[in-house]
Amino acid sequence: MTSALLIIDVQQVLCSGEYEAFEFKRVINRINLVARKVREAGATVVVIQHESVGGPMDYGSEGWTLAPGLEALPTDTYVRKTATDSFHNTNLQAVLQARGVKNLVICGLQSEFCVDTTTRRALALGYPVTLISDGHSTMDNAVLSAAQISAHHNETLSNITSFGPRAKAVPASEVQIEA
User: Fold this and answer.
1) Is there a domain that residue 179 lies in?
2) Which residue segment(s) compose the domain that 93 sits in?
3) pTM of the entire structure?
4) Count of CB atoms within 10 A of residue 140's CB?
5) DSSP string, 67-125
6) Are 13 and 60 in contact (CB under 8 A)?
7) Domain with 84 in it: what CATH number?
8) Which residues pair with 44 in a beta bridge?
9) How far is CA 20 from CA 25, 51, 61, 64, in A?
10) Please, which of 42, 56, 65, 130 could form a disulfide with 105 given CB 3.0 to 4.6 Å?
11) Structural domain tally of the chain?
12) Does an H or E element contain 131, and which?
């Protein structure tokens, strides 16, 4: 398979309490829908977890664990990261190259941080991206609501042309996995 799904930072700390992402349960359901499609097609599912030192995402902490309801399987590939860019100082690029991945499907948390940065880096590395338009979220900030932030990133990322490969925002129900 030439496609891989990147599930970014769907972790306990971003799905509860003060950092709870907007409509995270619906987002997780949509991510699970796409993950099932990817697995049925025999493509790669990569589960990416952010970690910090001295914070709510410390490796192994409750906040670091995957959110309840996310259908992550032992057969999925797991990547730990410490930056908003899932490729930065990780083995993600090597994993994708080893599997002959040419196209990425991206979803997760948070829209304006790790989803945005990873999508831009993927484009810069030459990967066309299907961004699951209803499969990423964040929380409100002082300027915009979470829904506005996610909508803004769907629009912005879909209109970047400078890298060559493009991102296309597609609802989870319409995602198709390329062979």
Assistant:
1) no
2) 3-174
3) 0.98
4) 12
5) PTT----TTSEEEEESSSSTTTTSSHHHHHHHTT--EEEEEEE-IIIIIHHHHHHHHHT
6) no
7) 3.40.50.850
8) 4
9) 10, 17, 17, 13
10) 130
11) 1
12) strand 129-137
